Each structure stands twice: as C-alpha cells, then as structure tokens.
Amino acid sequence: MEFAELIKTPRVDGVVLHRPFLPLVEGTLCLTGHHLILSSRQDNTEELWLLHADIDFIEKRFVGSSGTIIVKCKDLRIIQLDIPGMEECLNIASSIEALSTLDSVSLMYPFFYRPMFEVIEDGWNLFLPEESFKDLESMTDEWRLSEVNRDFSICPSYPPLVVVPKDTDDDTLLKVASFRHGGRFPVLSYYHKKNGMVMMRAGQPLIGPNGRRCKEDEKLINATLRAGKRGYIIDTRATAVAQQAKARGGGFEQEANYPQWRRIHKTIERYSVLQDSLIKLVEACNDQSHSMDRWLSKLEASNWLSHIKEILTTACLAAQCIDREGATVLVHGTEGTDSTLQVTSLAQILLDPSCRTIRGFQALVEREWLQAGHPFQHRCAQSAYSSGKLHGEAPIFLLFLDCTWQILRQFPCSFEFNENFLVLLFEHAYATQFGTFLGNSAAERSATLKLPQKTVSLWSWVNRPQEMEGFVNPLYEPNSLVIWPSVAPQSLQLWEGVFLRWNRSSKCLDEAYEEMVHIIEYNKELQKKVNSLRRQLAQLETEEI
Amino acid sequence: MENIRTPKVEHVRLIDRTNPRRCSVGTLYLSSTHSIFVENTEARRETWVLHSLVSSVERPPVSPSGNPLVIRCKNFQVFQLLIPQEKDCLDVQASLSRLSRPERYGELSCFSFNPNLNKEARDEAWSFIDLRGDYVRMGIPSNLWYITAANSEYRVCDTYPSDLYVPKSATPSVIVGSAKFRSRGRFPVLSYYHRDNSASICRSSQPLSGFSARSTEDEQMIQAIMKSNPASEFMYVVDTRPKLNAMANRAAGKGYENEDHYTNIKLQFIGIENIHVMRNSQQKIIDVGQVRSPSMGDFLWGLENSGWLKHIKAVMDAGVFIARAVAEEGISVLVHCSDGWDRTAQACSVASILLDPYYRTLKGFMVLIEKDWVAFGHKFSHRYGHLDSDPKEISPVMDQFLECVWQLMEQFPCAFEFNERFLLQLHTYVYSCQYGNFLANSQKERRDLRIQERTHSVWPHLWKDQAEYSNPLYRADHSQTQGVLRPVTTPYCFKFWKAMYNRLDQASAARQSPADCLSAVREETQQLEEELSTHQEVPRGTVHSPTRQENSFSQGEEDGGGAKEDDQSQ
C-alpha cells in the first residue's frame, strides 16, 4: 500500500506522551496509514489514537540526542511526544507531516473505516431533498422541485434537486444561472409556515462594470413576492466591497432593475480574514502568561467575537424581515457558499423550532451546508495552527457552530441538543472517520467520491440511541416560538468549550452538568411513579363504584 | 417631608431603556423614602425606587417631547423619565437630589422602616448571626487561642469589635503595645482558624515602622501567632498593597514589617490597588455597561481600559495565595493593607470562602460578611456613601468581594448554596440602608446609634426567602462542595458580570435561565416526593384484597394532609 512508503519508522519504544489534564504515558509509538498510536501496553492506561488528518501542525525540538515533537491538532489540542533518538524523531516527524497532508481525498480514513457498530438507520438516506419537498408541498403549492441541475452542469456546487418558484421553468433557470456567480441561481432556502414568507439564497449577480441585467433573474425573484409587497435583499458584504466586485464581473442588484426590493448591506468578512481571526484567537487563548490587559487586548484584536456579532446580527435581520416585516428575503454575498449559508442557516434556527431539535439540526446542516455546496474540504483542510500560504481555509462552519452555541446559551431550554453535539460537529468537520464532511459539493460527494457507497455517514453513528444520550439537552422543552437572541457584546461570550477546552479543566462544569441531568432524571422518575400510583388509585376508585 | 417640593407629578413618561421608542405613561409620587411611578394602565404597575439607592439625578437638555430626567442608582439601575412641565422636572430633581443625600443617619430609611415586628422578634432577628458561635465552630477558644476582653468598651481600638481572639501567649501588655505600633490601633487578631492543621488567618493594619521604628510587643504578637501553629516554622505576612505604595507609606512613619526585626516571617506583596483607583475603575466599567449598542471592539476595549477585571483578579489572587498557604503549606498568614479594613477584608473573606465550605452556605456567607466586614469595621457608610459626605471615601470594596464570589460560582457551579440573585440583592442592601446592618463605620458607631433598637436586621429577612436565593445545583454532599476550592486565575477565567453591570439588557430579554428551570424542577420534585410518600402509605398488596381498599385509601389521604401541615410549620 502507498502508505508504507511514507512511514519511515513505523514504531519507536520509550516515547513519552504529554497531554492536557492527563498523566504522562510512556510507551510505544506506532504509525499506521491513518493513525498515530501510543500505547503503554498496560491495561489501565488510556491509549492515544490520533488521526493523522486531525494534525494541523507539528514542531520539532531537539535536546541532546532526543527529540520532542509538538503535535497541534485541528481540534485545538496540543500534545507533546518525547522521542529518544534523533533519527527516529526526524523520521516520525516527516512521516506525520506527509500523512497528515495527503492530497488525495480517496486516501482519507473514511474510505478505510469499517464501523464497529451495526448501521440501523443509514445517515446517507436520512435527509433526501424529495422528502423535505413533500413537507413543503403540504404547506404551499407555489414551489416546485427542479431537476435542471441533475448532472451538475448548470451549477457545480448545487445538488441535483433544487426548489424554485413554480412558474419558473428550467430554461429560465439556465439563463439566470449564467447571470449568477458560480451558476448559483436563487433557490428556496426556507419557507416560514407562520406567514408564508420565504428566504432564498444565491450567488452575486454578475452585473459587471457595465451594469448588465437579466430580465429572467428579475422575474424569478419577483415571482416570490406577494402582490404589492417589497422584498429584502441581504448582501452580506459591505457596500464598498460589493461595489468593487463589479470590476471583477460581479456586483449587486441595481435598484432600477429591482424596484420591488430593498437592498441591505452587512459586513461579514471574507474567509481569509476569518482564518486570520481564528489563528489570533487561539494564540491568545493558548498563552497562559498573559496579564489581564494583554489577554483582553488580544481577544479584541482577534476580532473573533466581532465576527460572531456581525453574523448573528445579519441572521437576526433576515429573520426579522421574514417574521416581523412579513417580507421575502434573498441572501447572497459573493459566491453564496460561505457567509450566505451562515446567515440562512442561523436565521432558520431563530425562526423554525424544528431546527432546534437534534434531527432538525442535522437536516439543517445537510440542507444548508452540505447540499448547498459549502466547500468543507477546502475550508477545513487546516485549522488554527495553520501557517504559510493558505488555500481557502476558513472557520466558516465553526463560526456558524459558535453562533449556534451563543443562541443555545441564551435559550438553554429551547434546544434538544447540548453543547457537546456542536463540539462533535466541529471535530468531525475537520477530521473524521465518517464521510459526511468530505468533499466540497454534492457533485463531488456523490458522483466523484461515491461517499454514500464507500463511507459511513456521521449521522448513522450519532443517531444510535447509546450515542445520542450524550448529546441530549436535559433542559429541553419544545418552544414553538421564534427566538430573538441578544447580539449586544455583553451577551456574547468566548466559547470556552472549544477555545479553552484544552487549557482549563472542565471538571467542575461537567459535574454541574451531571448534577443537572441527575435532578431532571430523578424528577422524571418520580413523575412516572406518581402517575402510575395515581392511575392505580383511580382504578381502585372506579372498581369501588 | 420639607424636602419634597412636589409630592406628585402627572403624565410622566417612564422610558423603556431597552427600546427608547417605548414608554409608559403614569404618575410619579415622591414619598419620604421612595419615588413611586404608577402606570396609568389597568394593571397600574408600580415601580419603586428607594431614595437612598439614588446615586445621581441628571437633567439632560430639554427635548420637544418633554423635560428628561435620568435617575441613576447605586445598584446600576437607570430610570429615564420625561416630565411635561419644566418646573415639575426641576422640583423633582431638587427634591431627589436632597432626599438621596441625607445628612444625618436619622434620615435613612432603616430608621423609619417598620416590618411589623415586636421587640422580641426584633432582638431575636439581631441575634440571628452569632459570631462567637462561628469561632466555636472553628474550635476557638482552644488551648492556643482565647477571647480577650482587652477591647471591651472599644478601649484599645475603636474600629474593632469588642470580642477579639488572640493567641494565648498574647498578654494584655503585648496587645496594647502592638496596638500602639499599628495604624489606628488595629493590632493582629484572628480572623479564621483552619481546624484541620491549626494554621490561621490573622488581620491587622500596617505597622508604624517607618524606616527604622520597631516594637517589641508587636514582634512578640507576630511570634505568638506563629507559635499558635505548632507545626510551622515561619509565617507569611501578606501586604495586599502594591509594594511601591507600601514603601511610600514608610515615609509617613508607616509601612510594612521589617524582615530583620520579625523572626521567621516571609513578606508577600499582592498588589491590590487603593480605593481611589478602584472607584475610577468601576465608574469606567459602569459606563461600558451602559453604552447603547456598542461594537464588540468598543466593549472589549472599554473592559480592558477600565482595568476592572484586572483588579478583581488581584483580589482573587490574594485570596488564593492565603488559602494555599493555609491549606496546602499549613502556614499561618497575617494579612494587612494600610488601615486593614478594605483590601484586608477582601483578601481574608475570599480566602475564607475558598478554605471553608461553611462560608459557601447561605448562613455561612452571612456569618462571613458579619465577621470580616461588619464586625471588623469596614467603613460601610463612607464607602457606599450612605450620607452626604466626602466622595473620595466612596469605593466599591464590597462590590469587588461579591464579584469574586460570583466569579467563583462561575468556576464552581455546585459549590455554593446561594445563587447570583442573592449576591445582587445583598449588593443592593449594602447601599440602600433599608436595614441597619450595614450602617455606620464600626461596631462602636452602631452601638452609639442604638442600631439594634432602632432598625431591623437584614439577615432573617433574606433567610426567610431562601428558596429564592438557593442554587439548585448545590448539594451538601457533593465533592465540589467539600474541601478547599482551587480556582484558576488565568485572565480568561474572569468574565464581565453582566447581571450586575448590564441590568438594562437583562430586563429586556425574558431569556431562559437554566438555574431557574432547575429550581422549578426541584420544587416540583419535592411536591412529587410528598405525594409519593402519601400514596405509599397505601399498604402493599391492597390491590389484591378489595375489602380493604377503601380503608387504606382514606388513611392515605389523612396522612397526606398531616404531612403537609408539618411541612408548613417548619
């Protein structure tokens, strides 16, 4: 197998492992095609199994004849391996470097992983567009499922099936696609059952420097407006950025051509800025020697929380337009695969209670991220320890999860899942044994990589009752209302569960969580007992009569 | 009453701070103790603001919609009113300005507050907290420590309590000599005794050492304290001030212990800033909390610029250092600052909270405040501006202590019997003077004012509402509850206390609190437990013997009724 060539030294004895919060382990280090394994070969010490794909960056240090490798993981953990022997250390380091940066997706672990559990419900078939369209059909007949993109030729980043206004035929879609960035013509993202308003998303219109227009595009989106009603176009870019885009063939909807729409510009940053922000934030969190002033100034300088605030504000705006103003909304940025999806998916969490359930959230991730063509493979190739030239890596999805966590924190009873579930998705988006987050689009996933046939879905594993248990929020009480989180800076916090996870022990917080679970479970148990006794009593009473 | 220029103004608008476009119209009444706003609606919702809680009354420029009046409170609440007539507005401002700055103690609301208690109940309420009892709990008096009568009638130190605990070997002459060598006579006395290992925390003010002065008695006193911890060979003297400040004090004939004169002491400076720095810092953080729609950058910059969290961390670090010395090294600590009533109170009480689970209970926390703050002469009336007096004496010393406790709650959610609401309520009472506990500046002053005869104690009142103030996650037998707390004091562990400094945003959002949900669940659980015990009175097997059913059923009912009554009487 190809991997053997990359592994110069497959095993080294006497390696010492340092991990956060755990005692040192001395043992044998083994490299396999996909894992770095350290085992003390004693029953009672925990082994380390680290996916090469989870390694973001390594550093080597040498003292005398022994070396140290600092392994920085994509989940932000930092571990240290003390390796006796200079040559072994160098060999291990270069093997890890090679194995953790494999170019070919098909060599990734998910293609080799065989589940140790029985797949009861195949995650690949859980969230089919046909199924969700059936739900839509039961509420409205104004939309149809188009197959215009069945061979991915119109829009390579769209799925084969998309929902479009009923009266818009496929020929029109073809023309509109040529007017939108990446062929991303406006499609339905969300239907607000309460008032029938909709949210659509697209790529930027390609008006270019000369103000090109496309009648079909205007007609398509106008078809979604109620008679006499105005709609909102939320452009996730600042006005100046959108203006500049014209020079490169892009741009925004001109008022003259879209008189029924009001355009609002927000300023969600582009991916390179966000990646830089993540790097700075994690650097600040990892330096424990900071004084208070330095910490706060670094936290501020990272701008991470500013990005959170901006994204949430934009999502709230979209939700407000739909729910409060009773207006139709179209969201786009440049490509429509990053900030656009952050906004449309977060707005749905605010508006639609079903997105706050575990299944509903999975469906949302599937629909608004995976099917909608967020390039996971590119964005999550590197995490916070990346250095050197980047190739489109950015924590777009992590920001979405962080925003979700902020809402969850403000509405701790309105979500069926807990923080652990969000952390899990973060981990698996970056490194995983499952196929769910591989590839950059539906086309790559199904046509090129054949993931449903060759890999296991994350959902197949997560949805097993024994796994699910750990992700259920004990405080959950279904809340059918729209929720409005505060986006004031005082209300937004650093997501400790991700960013301080490896820097401070969470023992006491975990204990508090367990205590909470215990209180609620005990309550439920008593309820059960009391109810059964009440029934018995009632029965006895009726028997008396 | 002569201070109230206008007792009633109609058609006043109370503006919703969260949404300035919203407001409610109603009538504003000024009583001798409160401003009361009554809405003109069916519900006639009332908003009461104690005059003693008002920190400032501002009159921004007149707007077309009326004469604005902004009332800022000492607990950081803000009320914004619009008054139709300028004259009324001026009158209200003048009245409130006067009423909120009483010149004599007698004007404070605690002297007119009457919760309908008879004399017996009032006396009983005042003996709710028993400080001698707390020392007994710690194992004092013992063969090493005793209670000295040296300060009866406040003869040696008028800012100390009359009951003081000192080492057995500290004779009256040592006490008097030591007191003469300490600022304001505040000689070293016992604050906390760690039963597990005999290490103790003592407190005092700075020594009058200047550049060369020394006192044999003071040195003997320190030696006696060290000897009272037989296993140890040295003790720490924690000077909670920045070293530079401590050195500057030497020029004024004060300063810190000279390590050459005192045998076996280790001097440690912590660097908590003085009351003036803290006052300015808090003003900045209040401003940060009250900016309308700031950007994230503005907010974080403001937070950094205020220095507030840095100061909170300094107080926490002091507590952590002392607790570690006592619990882990088994070394006794003498804590002082300048006068020994601000930073010293903070450091000792934070350390005690970390060391002793008892102080993390509702009752224990009351005891701790009564001991380290009230009894030891923290100058409540000066620090919290109870009377119209020198503004330079005002400083949020207690605020910082309460915030340290809140920061600890964030790190140890199961460790405290009480909740955040309790801290906030206590903070309000410290400022509001509805009860007499926090009045004046020392035990002697309170005795002279006959506080116990003329006002009421806040503790039984808070105790009565303990359901409201209890932390649902607290369990006396939980591992987090027991033993010493070891908090992390890396900067990122300190958070902005939103409930304190951003009451505005809190009021707006009827957001969910996990603690409140849990409290509700626990309450329900309790009811279920009661119901269950009622049902289980039904003897097992009755289901199979129809003849006995009726009997046992009614019996169950009766028992249930009885159990309920018992419950109420508790």
From TrEMBL, chain A:
<keyword id="KW-0256">Endoplasmic reticulum</keyword>
<dbReference type="GO" id="GO:0005783">
    <property type="term" value="C:endoplasmic reticulum"/>
</dbReference>
<dbReference type="GO" id="GO:0005829">
    <property type="term" value="C:cytosol"/>
</dbReference>
<dbReference type="GO" id="GO:0048471">
    <property type="term" value="C:perinuclear region of cytoplasm"/>
</dbReference>
<keyword id="KW-0963">Cytoplasm</keyword>
<keyword id="KW-1003">Cell membrane</keyword>
<dbReference type="InterPro" id="IPR029021">
    <property type="entry name" value="Prot-tyrosine_phosphatase-like"/>
</dbReference>
<comment type="similarity">
    <text>Belongs to the protein-tyrosine phosphatase family. Non-receptor class myotubularin subfamily.</text>
</comment>
<dbReference type="InterPro" id="IPR048994">
    <property type="entry name" value="PH-GRAM_MTMR6-9"/>
</dbReference>
<keyword id="KW-0472">Membrane</keyword>
<dbReference type="InterPro" id="IPR010569">
    <property type="entry name" value="Myotubularin-like_Pase_dom"/>
</dbReference>
<dbReference type="Pfam" id="PF06602">
    <property type="entry name" value="Myotub-related"/>
</dbReference>
<dbReference type="GO" id="GO:0032587">
    <property type="term" value="C:ruffle membrane"/>
</dbReference>
<protein>
    <recommendedName>
        <fullName>Myotubularin-related protein 9</fullName>
    </recommendedName>
</protein>
<feature type="domain" description="Myotubularin phosphatase">
    <location>
        <begin position="123"/>
        <end position="499"/>
    </location>
</feature>
<keyword id="KW-0175">Coiled coil</keyword>
<dbReference type="GO" id="GO:0046856">
    <property type="term" value="P:phosphatidylinositol dephosphorylation"/>
</dbReference>
<keyword id="KW-0966">Cell projection</keyword>
<dbReference type="InterPro" id="IPR030564">
    <property type="entry name" value="Myotubularin"/>
</dbReference>
<keyword id="KW-0007">Acetylation</keyword>
<dbReference type="Pfam" id="PF21098">
    <property type="entry name" value="PH-GRAM_MTMR6-like"/>
</dbReference>
<dbReference type="GO" id="GO:0019903">
    <property type="term" value="F:protein phosphatase binding"/>
</dbReference>
<dbReference type="InterPro" id="IPR011993">
    <property type="entry name" value="PH-like_dom_sf"/>
</dbReference>
<dbReference type="GO" id="GO:0010507">
    <property type="term" value="P:negative regulation of autophagy"/>
</dbReference>
